[in-house]
Design goal:
There is one protein chain. The protein has 402 residues and is of the alpha/beta class. It has 15 helices and 14 strands. The chain has two domains: 196 residues, NAD(P)-binding Rossmann-like Domain (Rossmann fold, 3-Layer(aba) Sandwich), CATH 3.40.50; 165 residues, 3-Layer(aba) Sandwich (Rossmann fold). α1 links the parallel β1 and β2. The longest helix has 31 residues. It binds nicotinamide-adenine-dinucleotide. The site of nicotinamide-adenine-dinucleotide has 27 residues, from α4. Nicotinamide-adenine-dinucleotide binds next to α4.
């Protein structure tokens, strides 16, 4: 069993740390955020994820997992730090990955394995990890192993999927691939698919860009159906009876740290060849504004008879999680707040506090609002009775009340 250093203890790094520790390795987690480290070492998870609190408590108590604010020497280093894009230009921002590589360089010894798990543009394992480390430690050239192994876990079921999903593992050379496969075999129950680091990087981006394009199709369809007075949910349901058609569901847009970000890495790498992926991003990014326009029409309608009170259901980017990153629900809420005088109530059961909005309990929101906007289809919202929806204008971006 190895000493494993997980660099970045966020939504993926923390669950990875505990499943690796549960497999018998000794995990030395690292995060630059001291509060995160303190919370973990007190036996708690700083993020909401089913089953995570229990496993953090167990592994920190039995000593198989400990968190630090600085890198500790290990045999395997997993880099799981953010990979956002920069502002308007939508270029990948690899500064966190390069910093993590710089931070671990002084500790690496002959025979160690360094794996980049952060979703990254093609060439990153070679250029932003291996080159950065070997520039600092040239004497280790050819003596350490570098690989890329992306995550596929879904928030809400991360712990299960981290272990049971198939994984693509690609080294910068064959020896690196073999070394990485040996490590992942120690805790992954799904198939481990071997390739090169460049291909593995492209595979991850392809998975997310594919989802984005398909969701954009559903979102565009929802606008067309609205224009034609048709029920998009019915159209999709009936079309999906075709044995070779499988249209996804529309929504208020696309959020999260992955699908809303990663297609830009492909577009940035080959701008001339990616009109479809760029347009899909633009279609999905424009959907929250369309929802805002629907709400404004409802406000004008309500104003004729009573004072409009908007009830917004959900801020998270997907159901049953507390993750608000890139969330279209947040875009709708903040755009409405900045562009209307109407009273806005927000219910988000997965967080206790929001910087901009006062959060309301569901019952109070249902009682006081007369325009109800379903943004994030959390389980709690799916059982709202028809009685409680009476006399409200409903804007249902998820088809929950259909
Ligand atoms: N969240 C998901 O569902 C998901 C799924 C698949 C892939 N990914 C990819 O995984 C990567 C990480 O995503 P996440 O959601 O876990 O991000 P996150 O923001 O939740 O966590 C990243 C952590 O890294 C820490 N960090 C940043 N720089 C550091 C450094 N130099 N040393 C130590 N810690 C550092 C941050 O403080 C933060 O706690 C991203 O590339 C993302 O695209 C995420």
């Amino acid at each position: 069993m190895a000493k494993v250093s997980v660099i970045g203890l966020g939504y993926i790094g923390l669950p990875t740390s505990v499943v690796v520790a549960m497999a018998g390795h000794s995990v030395l987690g690292v995060d630059i955020n001291p509060k995160t480290v303190e919370t973990i070492n007190s036996g708690k998870a700083h993020i909401e994820e089913q089953g995570l609190d229990e496993l953090v408590a167990k592994t920190t108590k039995d000593g198989s997992f400990k968190a630090f604010t600085t890198v500790q020497p290990a045999d395997v280093y997993l880099i799981i730090v953010p990979t956002p894009f920069t502002g308007e230009s939508k270029q990948p921002d690899m500064k966190y990955v390069r910093q993590a590589a710089t931070d671990i360089a002084p500790f690496i010894k002959e025979g160690d394995l360094v794996v980049l798990e952060s979703t990254s543009p093609v060439g990153s394992t070679k250029n932003d990890v291996a080159k950065v480390i070997l520039d600092i430690r040239p004497e280790l050239t050819g003596k350490i192993y570098f690989a890329f192994c992306p995550e596929r876990a879904i928030p809400g079921n991360t712990l299960h999927e981290l272990v049971h999903n198939d994984r693509t593992v690609g080294g910068i050379d064959e020896a690196s691939t073999a070394k990485a496969v040996e490590f992942y075999t120690s805790y992954i129950k799904g198939d481990i698919l071997q390739t090169t680091s460049d291909t593995a990087e492209m595979v991850k981006l392809t998975e997310n860009a594919s989802r984005d394009v398909q969701i954009a199709f559903a979102n565009e369809l929802s606008l067309v159906c609205d224009d034609l007075g048709l029920d998009v949910w019915k159209v999709i349901e009936l079309a999906n009876h075709h044995p070779r058609v499988n249209i996804l569901q529309p929504g208020p847009g696309v959020g999260g740290h992955c699908i809303a970000v990663d297609p830009w890495f492909i577009v940035a790498s080959s701008p001339k060849n990616t009109p479809l992926m760029r347009t899909a991003r633009e279609v999905n990014d424009s959907k929250p504004n369309w929802v805002v326009e629907q709400v404004k029409k409802a406000i004008n309608e309500k104003q004729k008879t009573e004072k409009p009170v908007i009830g917004l259901l959900g801020l998270a980017f997907k159901p049953d999680v507390d993750d608000l990153r890139e969330s279209p629900s947040v875009t709708v809420a903040t755009t409405l707040k900045n562009s209307t005088d109407a009273e806005i109530m927000v219910c988000e059961p997965y967080i206790n506090h929001h910087e901009i909005f006062n959060l309301s309990p569901l019952d109070e929101l249902l009682e006081k609002s007369n325009i109800l906007v379903m943004l994030t289809d959390h389980s709690e919202f799916k059982n709202i009775s028809a009685e409680k929806l009476k006399n409200k204008i409903i804007i249902d971006t998820r088809g929950t009340f259909k």
